[in-house]
Design goal:
There is one protein chain. By secondary structure, the protein is mainly α. It folds into 2 domains: 70 residues, no CATH class; 34 residues, no CATH class. The chain is 71% helix and 0% strand.
Amino acid sequence: MLINLFQTVRSAGVPCTLRELLDLLGALEKQLAYSNIDDFYYLSRAILVKDEKHYDKFDKAFDIYFKGIEKLEDIFQALIPEDWLRKAFEKELDPEELKKNSISWWSRKIIRRV
């Protein structure tokens, strides 16, 4: 996922290197930004942008890449197709449990655990 963000930022004209991408991955492993898009924005901007003259370019690239995504649940919905989730839940849950709640309800419950 981050390689695509990295490529989007670079294609917007922000001169960042693979070293910065690896630093961003390391920061995420240490959970310096977790499940909050604003925290991730500021962390990734601090690591990927080395000169403030590129902030506008970064902002455009970030907006393009994360358009319409405001919380962790939105990211999962964008990355995981609902029919895949439905099939996975059908394998794991009893038919009666599935009838009680929708697939989106189950996916929100799982995301809260993450």
